[in-house]
Amino acid sequence: MPARAHKLWGWLAKEIMTLDPGAFAIVMATGIVSNAFLLQVSVQLSAVLFAVGLAAYCGLLVLSLLRCAWLRRAVWADLTDPRLVFLFFTFVAGTDVLGSGVSLRGYDRAALGLWLLAALAWLALIYFSLAVLTFFNTDRGVDIVQSGWLLAIVGTESLVILGAAVAPMLGRLSPTAFVLLHMLWAIGLVLYGIFISLFSQRVFFTALTPDKVTPSWWIVMGAAAISVNAGSTLVAASSGIAFLESMRPFIDAVTLVLWAWATWWIPFLLILGIWKHAVCRLPLVYTPALWSVVFPLGMYSVATLRLSLTAEFAPLRLLSYAMAWIALAAWVLIAAGLVVATWRSLQPSRRQA
Predict the structure, then answer these.
(1) What is the distance between the alpha carbons of residues 21 and 296, in angstroms, rounded to a whole number?
(2) How far is it, in rounded angstroms, from Cα 97 to Cα 117?
(3) What pTM, to 2 d.p., does this model score?
(4) Three-state DSSP class for 276?
(5) Of 7, 109, 117, 272, which residue is the least packed, with the fewest Cβ within 10 Å?
């Protein structure tokens, strides 16, 4: 037994050492599918997914803290690598998505605590990550299309969604918070505009090879969808500030444009996936990046539901309902891949034990 425990501890230590900076993507994916089901499909199934997401969040938080304590140089190397630094925004988005689930269940103080934690992490990362990209990109030649910059946008917009839910708890600071949330929504839009120009130029006007098509490309759609969700949330919220209230028509218009843009990307991304795996025959194997497919699908479902409520256009709810089930199916398949991959990684330890 001690020998077996020693081998398992060695496996766990290896997992901590190789922990992906974007590991919290599983929390993002699980949390948003849970929220989608809570809002329109099944409270019971949502509760199961919420429990899984909460367990994953707590486990990854412990592993991340241990890695920071034991492997500070490795963590710093990831933080100063322009190819990896943006992946840390999965912690921001994962915390906010989990916080939204907590808020929907009526635990407002816990949701406020999670929002403050996510806001502090975002503040620490946003300028640091852009500084790393600015000062280290020349030497390393990183491809910004593959570096996860979109996760910074997702993290920014996630602060808007949870922030609108917890802002009324801030008392006298509530109006200030709503001004900040509108600013964050606008910042996210500007960053998205910059990125999508670079991304479109790379996809449509340069040679494309199958290995360049990655699951993270789905975040192009997911970033637009979460901006829709954030915009609809701001429209539905009551800020009490006349200037912000006057912006509602503008936010409504931009939100509809973003939803149409997100919708347009879904068939194109499916075509790229078919081309890569069916035509070019590249094998589909589990990687943590696959959770980047589930999150946009779930976010699109929630964003479409929120848009249908804001626009008072009921037919969109059917689309939202269908996308929730599609997101769940993708979650189940990728979760099965994670279980199989984890089991296989345990086999050497089990044999040695």
Answers:
(1) 19
(2) 12
(3) 0.90
(4) helix
(5) 109
List the domains of the chain with CATH numbers: 2-352 (1.50.10.150)
Retrieve residue 78's tokens.
Answer: 């990831």
Can you tell me which residue has the tokens 């486990």?
59
Rounded Cα distance between 310 and 304, Å, is 10
Residue type, 241: I
Which DSSP letter does residue 206 get? S
d(CA 39, CA 86): 30
Give alpha helix (H) positions in the chain. 2-17, 25-40, 43-70, 72-79, 89-104, 108-140, 150-166, 174-205, 219-236, 242-245, 248-274, 291-311, 315-352
Nearest-angstrom CA–CA distance, 281 and 171: 57
Render pLDDT for 53-63 as a digit per residue (tens, 0 to 9): 999 999 999 99
Q: CB 41: neighbour CB atoms within 10 A?
A: 17
Listed residue (90, 32, 30, 38) closest to 298, CA to CA: 32
| Pair of tokens at residue 248 | 């509602």
Q: Residue 311 half-sphere exposure, CB side, CA atoms within 13 Å?
A: 21
Q: Say whether 278 sits in a helix, a strand or coil.
A: helix
Residues present in the chain in total: 353
Q: Under a CB-based contact definition with an 8 Å cutoff, are residues 15 and 66 in contact?
A: no
pLDDT for residue 1? 46
